[in-house]
Every structure is written in C-alpha cells, then in structure tokens.
Amino acid sequence: MNYIAKLYQRWNDFLHNEELKEKIYTIVFESDTPKGKLFDIVLIGSIILSVLLVILESMHIFPHSAYIVLRVLEYLLTLFFTIEYLARIYCLKQPRTYVLSFFGIVDLLATLPVYLSFFLHGSHYLLVIRAFRLIRIFRIFKLFQFINEGNLLLRSLWISAPKIFIFFFFVLILVTSMGTVMYMIEGTNPDSGFNNIPNSIYWAIVTMTTVGYGDITPATPLGRFFSAVIMLIGYTIIAVPTGIVSATMVRQHKALEKRRCPRCHRDGHEPEALYCKYCGAKLKTERVRKEEKQSDDMKL
C-alpha cells in the first residue's frame, strides 16, 4: 500500500509540476529558442519520413524483409508522435483548445490507426486502417507552423479571408448570372449541353477559371461571342485574390521588421514570438511596447 501511495504521489507531483510544464512548453511550442528549433527540425524530419514510408509501402516493389523494416520504423515514428501529442496536452493550461483544434485532431487521427491495427484483425478492417493511415500525410500542414514564411502566408490569408470571401461571393453571383444568360442563348438547341441552368453555371465556372474542359461548348455565333467575353473577364479577375494576399503579406512583413530584440538588436520576429530566434533573449510584448511608447510621449 505504501508503494502504491508513493507511486500515486509521484504521479500527482508530475501532473502539477509547473516548472517542467514550462520547459516542455518552451521546447514544443516556442520555435524561437535553440531547443525549440532542434525539436522542430526533428519533428519536421519525422513528418517527412512518415509520409515517405506510407508512399513506399504503397508501391509494393520491395521484398518482404524490407516491409518489416518499414513497419518497425512506422512503429517508432508512431511512438514519437504519441509522445509529442501527449507532451502538448500535458504542458497546456487548457489542453482542450489544442485537442479540438485542426492540428490536434490531425495529430490524433494520424496516430490512432497503428494502435487500432492491434485490435482489429479482420482483413476488411485492415483495408480500412490502411486507407485511414494516409491521413498522416496531412501532418505536412504542420510544417507551416515552423517556417517563418509559412507563418507569414497563413497569417496573410487569415487577415485577407473577409475580402477574399466577398470577392468569391461576387464571382459566384457572376457565374450564376452568366450561366443563366448562356442557358437562354444555347438552351433552345436540342443537341446542346446547355440543357439546364446548373450545367450552364458549371460551364461558366470552367470557362471563367480558364480550365476549359471542352465537354460543353456553344454552337451559336452569339454563344461563342459571349463565351469569349467570359474568358476575357476570367483573365482579369483571376489576379484579384493574389493581389489582396500580396498586399497583406507586404504589410505583415513590415510589421515583422518592427520587432527588435533588446539584446542583439536584430528584427524579423513573429508577432506571437516570446523569445529572440537569434540569441534567445525574451522579447517585449505588444502591450509593453505600447506602454513604453506612451511613457516616452508623456516625457516629451
């Protein structure tokens, strides 16, 4: 009983070890520290290796002994991803936020199939598990968390999302209107592919995006003229989302340059970074910088 009580006490101390949680959080979530960078490099390499293993296993060109090696590597990587997943939950004050997030769900789904294979032995179940394991390919999306340019791109896309949504809503109205007009022009032809409005809208989308499958084509001179107009309009509007995101990226890049390390005086840090990625010094938060600016203004 004393042994069980001691074991329970150690487990309880481990669960409430705030100093250990802070160290793990700095390594796992902060990519600006030396240990955080090393962890990110190992994690990125493991993600790429796990994807390569899935691709190689699907080719069926290796002898049986090679597949045993691939399976052992898969088990080791799964163990590493499991430890990483549990470490992220352990060091967070609100682990539910991570568990229910996109990357948290992907981490869980990418790790479960290997464990499920130990309990589901039917051949038809194994086929499902084999396909389910392909979900781990989506772990590649996590690479964007550790690449500055990827962070900048994702942040720019997030900020530009309302403008892009309004733009695509306008394009949706445009293709619906043009598809309806094309149905009025070509729909009277019994052999035409424009036999209903949904097909006409599909044609308008394919034409405006310059994909041009060619499965539906206008036959009348007026229809061909109208399709040419839609093609020209498509060329003019394709660049709009790119311009919106590019302008946002420029503004975000200028904002990054304003964050300067108080020790080494180098800039280019992420807005959410807590430590300098060059020397490891603690960076000033946005609130502290505003307070210092207000203090300087009052002195003047």
From TrEMBL:
This is Ion transporter. It is a multi-pass membrane protein. Keywords: Ion channel, Ion transport, Membrane, Potassium, Potassium channel, Potassium transport, Transmembrane, Transmembrane helix, Transport, Voltage-gated channel. The chain crosses the membrane at residues 38-56, 68-87, 99-118, 164-185, 225-250. It is found in: Membrane. It comes from the Bacteria. Pfam families: Ion_trans. Residues 37-254 form the Ion transport domain.
